[in-house]
Amino acid sequence: HGFPLCNPIVALKEGSTYLDKGVSIGDVGFISPGGSFRFFFNIFKAVDDPIHAGLTPTEFKPIEPPLEDSEITFIPDYFKPGTIIASEGIKVVKHSSEPLDTSFYSRKREGGILILPHGASRQDMADTDRLYEYVQRNAPHWYQVINEYSDYAFHPNGSLVIVTGCDKATDYANASFSNTEESPHRISLRYTRKPNYDLPWTRHDHADVHWFQPYKDDVISASPNKCVFVRTLRVSLSSISWAKALPHTSRFVSFIVQERSLFQRCRDIVAAWRKTRYREKELLAKIYADNKVRDGIPYCRDCMINVNNYG
Q1: 181 dihedral zone (left: phi>0; alpha: psi -120 to 50; beta)
Q2: Which of 233, 50, 58, 22 has its CA nearest to residue 134?
Q3: Which of 46, 101, 215, 276 could be stapled to 95 by a disulfide with Cβ–Cβ 3.0 to 4.6 Å?
Q4: Are 158 and 255 in contact, with CB atoms under 8 Å apart?
Q5: Organism's domain of life (predicted)?
Q6: In what order do the strands lie in the sheet with 208-212?
Q7: d(Cα 144, Cα 128) in Å, to the nearest integer?
Q8: Residue 213 phi/psi, 5° resolution?
């Protein structure tokens, strides 16, 4: 499915144009620890597009050509109404479908639940190959801008992502739990769909729950703009590129494995070669000894045929 967002509603100011559609293909941002997508800009949109609100990087230019509908696969009813997705080890007991009423039980240390009362759509960029050169050329500047050219890496290397696919719904409910105790307590949750914005969860003391259910007359909030799953490309720089772009932040933690230097890589290759050659010499010596005598019977080394059998 991709990465699940605990908070599918994007954390932006009320009235933002971006909220009309929500997370979309081409969005550049990061996934916050709280499970929401933080939007910066979209690589397919012009600088003056309303969703950018004048906050694009100073040297930003959208990728060319623009994204075509033919590049996107779209399935409007990928998740059927009433879909329930639960992680392994969670027992699901459905009491009724209308209104949707379901209980969940688990003794696992951690787990997650997603409920889609009206289902969800899926859209993906069919081929992402044309993004790589563009990202390689622009990513260093992106990291400079989002880190405000600071001596501190607010957004470490590898934290930026580009959205290549997403699943969006009009409403949702989710729950997650994580037990750190030696003897995990039994999780018992119940979801009952209710009118308007009433809390649908009960018995949720040991779980983190979220939900969104639009009011009956609120047509705008009922639009399919809540992203429940997102698929992305992670934007990571090499250690050399990062040091050039933000030289004073190299000491901070990176989201990617530190790249080994050329000297270290050469040293490893030589060490591996020497070890391999040593093993080869040992093996050849053993084979040569075995060829001379195997259980007291002479062997022909080249053809490995028992000489005595041929007289």
Answers
A1: beta
A2: 233
A3: 101
A4: yes
A5: Eukaryota
A6: 83-86, 110-116, 172-178, 208-212
A7: 24
A8: -140, 110
Name the phi and psi angles at 68, rounded to 5.
-100, 155
Return the sign of the alpha-carbon dihedral for residues 197, 7, 223, 190: negative
In 3D space, the residue among 191, 148, 212, 247 whose CA is nearest the CA of residue 6 turns out to be: 212
Q: Where are the beta strands (DSSP E) in the chain?
A: 3-4, 27-31, 37-42, 72-79, 83-86, 91-97, 100-106, 110-116, 120-125, 160-169, 172-178, 187-192, 201-202, 208-212, 226-235
Residue of 153, 160, 131 lying closest to 245 (CA atoms):
153
Structure tokens at 28: 């550049």
Q: Considering only CA atoms, which of 44, 39, 37 is closest in space to residue 2?
A: 37
Chain-centroid distance, C-alpha 118: 25
User: What is the model's pTM?
Assistant: 0.75
Q: Enumerate long-range contacts of 133-136, CB under 8 Å, 24 or more apart.
A: 134/43, 134/63, 135/162, 135/233, 135/235
> Six-digit token pair at 220?
């705008």
Picking from 123, 116, 121, the residue whose alpha carbon sits closest to that of residue 213 is 116
**pLDDT tens digits, the chain, 311 residues: what are they?**
889 998 887 655 555 788 788 899 999 999 988 888 999 999 999 999 998 888 888 889 999 999 999 999 999 999 999 999 999 999 999 999 988 999 999 988 889 999 999 999 999 999 999 999 999 999 999 998 888 777 677 788 889 999 999 999 999 999 999 875 665 678 899 999 987 778 899 877 788 998 888 766 554 457 888 999 999 999 988 888 888 887 766 544 455 544 445 565 566 556 555 554 545 555 556 555 554 444 444 433 333 333 333 33
